[in-house]
């Protein structure tokens, strides 16, 4: 059978991401990681019952399982969730009217469900979740050499994804572009690069505390749902990569999903816009927003990242060019909003 990723923890709640195909496989690897005797351990699920291969087959990827010696005991998650719900109820009764009314509108079962799904966050003390430096939370920085700040790591992860769209898009378009229109395409990407530099490649999207962050102030990201939905249908699609190294690893499986699709729709639109410019100024900011900003990007759980055709999501032709800013063909050589040596003129 196929190996899958699971998060295994020991009695101290120290967690390791372990890939395995069976209980035997997981236990063997876990014992090596946690330095436990192989002949005296069992694998338990969150309610304390023992996991067998049949149960394991129904577990989703990254399910948290516990490895215990026969002499060890742990306090299981349901009890912790119950305590957490009680704390939340107490908190809501003490807070101001605005907060209380917001929760009053929510379905009680949905609230409990959300708390249950986020129960694994209870395993990490809040001061570690809120910590940012390597000195405060060294375990979070495992395998991250020379990194000293969670926020800087998350900023780099965001910019890496956004810059990836830039390089991939440029590469994809240049493959089948005529020499005639190539200077214009290069100009478009020079402008994209300028916007990205001005906005730090939208690195703020993953940085908690930033105004445009896609997460809460403590770093909790909530899935924004499939491309054509206003929100996620599952209340359990939440993750806080600031909590632990394992959470950070799992966060790597989440996707930034283009509503108007990059390869199927945006790139062909840019190609056509360049080829048909005939002296008109390409609306670079419009295409920039489609490719690189949250105006067209949703952060989604892997389950909500559908590979299907995004019907009715189009790059609207009426936004392709800037109105009344046509470049002259004379000596004045007016450009689209800023001076440049390369023009998208009529071939």
From TrEMBL:
SMART domains xrefs: CAD
GO molecular function, a single term: hydrolase activity
Superkingdom of the source species: Eukaryota
Classification via InterPro entries: CIDE-N_dom (IPR003508), DFF40 (IPR039729), DFF40_C (IPR015311), His-Me_finger_sf (IPR044925)
Domain spans labelled CIDE-N: 2-76
Record's GO cellular component terms: cytoplasm; nucleus
One of the GO biological process terms: apoptotic DNA fragmentation
Keywords: Apoptosis
Protein name from the UniProt record: CIDE-N domain-containing protein
Organism: Ornithodoros turicata
Organism phylogeny: Eukaryota, Metazoa, Ecdysozoa, Arthropoda, Chelicerata
């Amino acid at each position: 059978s196929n190996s899958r990723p699971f998060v295994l923890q020991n009695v101290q709640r120290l967690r390791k991401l372990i890939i395995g195909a069976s209980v035997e496989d997981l236990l063997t690897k876990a014992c090596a990681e946690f330095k436990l005797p192989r002949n005296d351990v069992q694998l338990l699920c969150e309610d304390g019952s023992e996991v067998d291969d049949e149960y394991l087959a129904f577990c989703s990827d990254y399910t948290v399982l516990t490895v215990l010696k026969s002499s060890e005991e742990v306090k299981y998650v349901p009890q912790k969730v119950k305590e957490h719900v009680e704390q939340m109820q107490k908190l809501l009764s003490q807070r101001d009217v605005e907060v209380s009314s917001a929760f009053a509108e929510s379905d009680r079962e949905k609230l409990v469900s959300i708390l249950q799904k986020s129960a694994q966050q209870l395993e990490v003390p809040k001061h570690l979740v809120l910590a940012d430096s390597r000195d405060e939370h060294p375990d979070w920085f495992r395998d991250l050499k020379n990194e000293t700040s969670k926020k800087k790591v998350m900023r780099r992860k965001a910019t890496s994804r956004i810059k990836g769209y830039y390089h991939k898009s440029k590469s994809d378009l240049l493959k089948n572009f005529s020499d005639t229109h190539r200077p214009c395409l290069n100009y478009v990407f020079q402008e994209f690069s300028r916007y990205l530099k001005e906005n730090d490649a939208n690195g703020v999207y993953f940085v908690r505390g930033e105004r445009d962050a896609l997460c809460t102030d403590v770093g909790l990201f909530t899935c924004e749902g499939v491309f054509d939905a206003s929100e996620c249908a599952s209340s359990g699609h939440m993750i806080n990569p600031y909590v632990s190294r394992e959470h950070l690893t799992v966060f790597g499986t989440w996707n930034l999903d283009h509503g108007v699709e990059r390869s199927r729709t945006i790139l062909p639109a840019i190609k056509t816009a360049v080829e048909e410019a005939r002296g008109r100024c390409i609306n670079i900011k419009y295409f920039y927003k489609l490719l690189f900003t949250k105006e067209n990007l949703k952060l989604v759980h892997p389950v909500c990242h559908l590979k299907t055709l995004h019907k009715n999501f189009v790059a609207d032709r009426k936004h392709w060019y800037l109105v009344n800013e046509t470049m002259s063909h004379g000596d004045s050589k007016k450009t689209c909003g800023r001076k440049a040596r390369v023009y998208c003129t009529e071939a």
